[in-house]
Specification:
The protein is mostly beta strands. It has no helices and 30 strands.
Length: about 325
């Protein structure tokens, strides 16, 4: 049964971050809205659409509770079946994809849920759903090999093979059907771009030990991170539609997780325990931010209006936030 709760924004705060790394004067003050599911320890928003609807999950004890938060702040919890339900992505129509147990699912805007698996899958992991309802993700077979897939809106599933049979892991799909992710080979981990015709282009950042492409916008700009040969640090990158790669790293470890249609990215920098969120504009200006009162801040997703959904560590509790520009 669906459980709807209206959560009033507690702590709609104006916060000022005076960082020294590329701070834009127009981006000094932002509004933060915190929200939590009642009686839970951690609330993790994973994706936000352009209408401001957020999906993710909350935990209490050994239980995970999937949720949708609408733009007015009403939270609806749901389950896609037996096992943990983890909703990874929501499109602008409100369709959601993710995992339930070891299966994939898609939840239509009316709440209808369809569970699916590619042939031979023993663990299906959808990653993103695009505007038309196409889903990209990956799965593992009984031998532990990783394969990519794309599920069309009509339910047809196409398996994506990596170069020379390599294990391949799609992470995002845009409105045009272009897919990005990474694959493994004897020479390391490489990012890839698969166009709508099925052609795969390898993405390697200059001087990288390994490269992972994580997000792609509707114009073809790609974001992700790579590991340097020296220092073993993670560096963010953006690849423009022409194939030019720009690296950025405001702190020691930088991992972009999301890019919007304006080419703005968000993610985390500075590590996991005491890390910060960041937002990078299409012009390259970076603002590092910390949600008020938090020990660590993680930007998870940015929508086309520049609103960031993320979570922060309050010490033995993870709180969800929305950061409005």
């Amino acid at each position: 049964m669906l459980d709807k709760r209206k959560l009033l924004p507690e702590g709609c705060l104006i916060f000022f971050y005076l960082g020294a790394f590329g701070l834009a004067p127009a981006a000094i003050g932002q509004t933060y809205v915190f929200f939590d599911l009642p009686n839970t320890y951690y609330t993790y928003p994973l994706n936000i659409n352009s209408n401001g609807a957020v999906t993710g999950f909350a935990t209490f004890g050994g239980t995970r509770l999937a949720f949708i938060r609408d733009p007015a702040g009403t939270i609806t919890t749901f389950s896609a079946g037996g096992g943990f339900t983890v909703p990874d992505s929501i499109n602008d129509s409100g369709a959601i994809t993710g995992t339930v147990g070891k299966h994939g699912f898609v939840r239509a805007p009316d709440g209808t849920i369809t569970v699916f698996d590619p042939p031979a899958s023993v663990n299906t992991l959808p990653q993103r759903i695009n505007a038309s309802g196409a889903i990209a993700g990956y799965y593992f077979d009984a031998q532990g090999n990783g394969h990519g897939f794309v599920r069309a809106p009509d339910g047809t599933i196409t398996v994506i093979l990596g170069p020379m049979g390599a294990g391949i892991f799609p992470r995002s799909i845009n409105a045009n059907g272009a897919i990005v992710g990474y694959y493994g080979s004897p020479s390391g981990t490489h990012g890839f771009l698969r166009d709508s015709a099925g052609n795969i282009t390898t993405i390697d950042a200059p001087g990288a030990l390994s490269t992972q492409a994580i997000g792609i916008d509707d114009n073809g700009a790609i974001t992700g991170w790579y590991q340097q040969l020296q220092g073993m640090r993670f560096v963010g990158f953006e690849r423009d539609p022409a194939g030019n790669i720009t690296s950025f790293s405001p702190d020691f470890h930088t991992k972009p997780l999301s890019i919007n249609t304006e080419g703005w990215t968000t993610g985390s920098t500075g590590g996991t325990l005491l890390g910060h969120g960041f937002v990078r504009s299409s012009s390259g200006t970076i603002v590092v931010f910390d949600a008020p009162g938090c020990l660590a801040t993680h930007g998870m997703s940015i929508n086309d209006q520049g609103v960031i959904a993320g979570w922060c560590d309050f010490g033995f509790r993870g709180r969800a936030f929305l950061r409005y520009p």
